Amino acid sequence: MIKQHVFVWDPTPSNSSAVYNYLVKKVNERDLGESIEVYRSTYIGLTSGTPIIRILPKNIIYTKFEQEDLGEIFESIVSDEVVDRFICEYDAKLAPVSERDKQSKQFKIVLRNVGYLDPESIEEYISRGGYKALEKAIFEMDPDRVIKEIKDSGLRGRGGGGFSTGLKWELTRKEPGAEKFVICNADEGDPGAYMDRAVLEGDPHTIVEGMAIGAYAVGCKEGFIYVRAEYPLAIERLEKAISDAKKYGLLGDNILGSEFSFNLELRWGAGAFVCGEETALMASIEGKRGNPKPRPPFPSQSGLWKKPSFINNVETWANIPPIVEKGSGWFSSIGVGRSKGTKVFAVTGKVKDPGLIEVPMGTTFREIVYDLCGGILDNKKFKAVQTGGPSGGVIPEKFIDMSVDYETLMSIGSMMGSGGLIVMDQSDCMVDVNKFYLQFSVDESCGKCAPCRIGGKQLLDLISKITDGKGDKKDIQKIKNISNAMQKASLCALGQTTPNPVLSAMHYFEEEYMEHISDKKCRTGKCSNLVQYMIIPEKCIGCTACALKCPVKCISGEKKKPHIIDQKFCIKCGECFNACKFNAIVRG
Amino acid sequence: MEKMKKGDLAEFKKNYKSPYKGEIIISMGTCGIAAGGDAVYKLFESEMKEKGLENVKLKKTGCLGMCFCEPNLIVKLDGMPDILYGNVDERLARLIMNEHLTKKRIINFNTIFMPTDDIGRKIFKD
Ligand SMILES: Cc1cc2nc3c(=O)[nH]c(=O)nc-3n(C[C@H](O)[C@H](O)[C@H](O)COP(=O)(O)O)c2cc1C
């Protein structure tokens, strides 16, 4: 009999896990150490409030069993049988069951190779079926057929806008002119987003293959990957991928012996956020200053060097080979409504297991935060998620069961954005978060158009006034007016979307905003000008815990006597407040 | 290198065989390297030679997405289930070489399960 490996995950500390101890005891009692081995697992691939058992090599997962069921489970392991009623199965409504790991809510298309293959080895990529889609496109499909397939798949841009990828290709193909360009936008600039980096570093050949297919479909001989210089490893691996592909005849002249030739080059971005905007990006490739241009004319009509051009995001490109390989029907069966396929999210902030996840469109925020990322850190209360970074908005708790797709997010005043999800708990102040994003947008505004350059700064000043305790009720209307002007008159989406986080937070967290303005209070203590920490002498026993923690040493007092905070030097960090075990420190 | 022609890809894939008995795959995206994946890689590189474990391939990969337990690595050995270890430090790395690779015994802590199977293989299966 082959050896069975039994992994136990328990939310209680594993050395006191009753499940683990029971199974180990049983194995020892029956002297089965040769055929069954029990282990403690730190993370079992899914989360739950109760223990989970995973048995390899069969890969059976048991959940929702009680202590008294363990005997039965143990016997089943010994006799190599399965107890059906404890088997864990998520319902697979959003992705085809046969290809989805039933035990997880994730479904990987974009990240299919990331973390499995050696990104520096073209041999491995080919051995996993790489470049097969390119071969299929060139030899079995004409360009129009490729475009139709992409259009029918329902794939939409993953860079933020959500425009139909197939339609963009078709429009560019229809333009007259012999010279056209294809571009990959790898300038990922949203704070907290690293989906594109993971793909570039983990599976660079997918981007090369996807772009070669795009070039074939639209009729381009040359393409560029615009990658930010802050991603040196991505650049290194992309360069290797391109040169290897050339050596194998998968890029360059007469690809795979066909008539089709395509050359790909890298261009480095120097780190301006606005250079991720497509027209600014094209200016930057041309060697000009990265300023956006008014549209129309659209890049499909007049793009790079005034030639018809089309640009897609890294994640969009990574979807192309599987769609060509498996067909539009397969792809459009995943997801909900008009949002097809999957989306990669970089989940950060106050979650237990932050990381990169890929889920079918239509998965809910609750599933992402609680089932995939382990819930809120320190078991605090969920407050909101920020999607779409500095152009998006906040999603309050009441929408936590909402499906994550383009339309739904739009309808509640946020947007899909590129995929950064920042989770916030009750200790985060919404006004303070808004100030952070506004500061970012102000720093990154290129300054070409007045609404963005001046409006952004005015908004930031108003918000700073509020967080400083000098806010006025009239400021709310001012913020709305400026926002309105920016949304209508800014040249590019940077200025048009700068007000979004503020507007959505003012809408969903109005009470918190008004507290800052009318009561001059910040309930979380994040806005340091609105808080004061004080020691209640009657409650202080003089344990000195706070004085030891204070980073600026402004708490003084004799041992066993009430202490006092010198307000002149206090930096309002709140360390003393957290350190006090006697509730003797108040935040006012 | 001979340039590939139509049909060569399938041929290449069919004939592609790893001469190794197993693999150690270390997550080494920027994130993994920053968390110490580089040092773990170097340790394996030097010690595996010393210990005569050259029949196991040491390999880099990108970010598995499991930021909360970096550096992490997968151990694949013939006849054993694939095991992912998280928060790999020097001690665990040595244990993996001395126990898992040498004696085929899985280490009793820091085993992690990937949230999904290797779907990539299934997407492009023949
Ligand atoms: C200020 C600004 C920054 C942007 N940054 C990025 C970026 O970093 N990556 C990206 O793919 N798209 C970015 N975009 C969106 C691009 O302009 C463009 O819509 C996208 O690359 C199109 O690709 P898609 O259709 O595949 O989404 C940005 C847009 C704006 C207005």
Can you describe what's shown?
The complex is a heterodimer of chains A (about 600) and B (about 130). By secondary structure, chain A is an alpha/beta fold. Chain A has five domains: about 5-95, Glutaredoxin, CATH 3.40.30; about 120-330, Rossmann fold, CATH 3.40.50; about 335-425, Ubiquitin-like (UB roll); about 430-520, NADH-ubiquinone oxidoreductase 51kDa subunit, iron-sulphur binding domain (de novo design (two linked rop proteins)); about 530-585, Alpha-Beta Plaits, CATH 3.30.70.20. Chain A is built from 22 helices and 19 strands. In chain A, strands 12-11-15-13-14 form a five-stranded mixed sheet. In chain A, helix 7 packs parallel to helix 9 (about 230-245). The longest helix of chain A has 18 residues, at about 450-465. The N and C termini of chain A lie far apart (about 65 Å). Chain B is of the alpha+beta class and about 130 residues long. Chain B has a single domain (about 20-120), classed as Glutaredoxin, CATH 3.40.30.10. Chain B has five helices and five strands, in the order αβααβββαβα. Chain B has a five-stranded mixed sheet with strand order 2-1-3-4-5, with helices on one face. Chain B is globular and about 50 Å long. Chain B starts with 7 loop residues before the first helix and ends with a helix. The mean pLDDT of chain B is about 90. At the A-B interface, strand 2, helix 3, helix 4, helix 7 and helix 9 of A face helix 1, helix 2, strand 2, strand 5 and helix 5 of B. Strand 2 of chain A pairs parallel with strand 5 of chain B. The complex binds flavin mononucleotide. Flavin mononucleotide binds near residues 157, 159, 276, 277 and 492 of chain A.
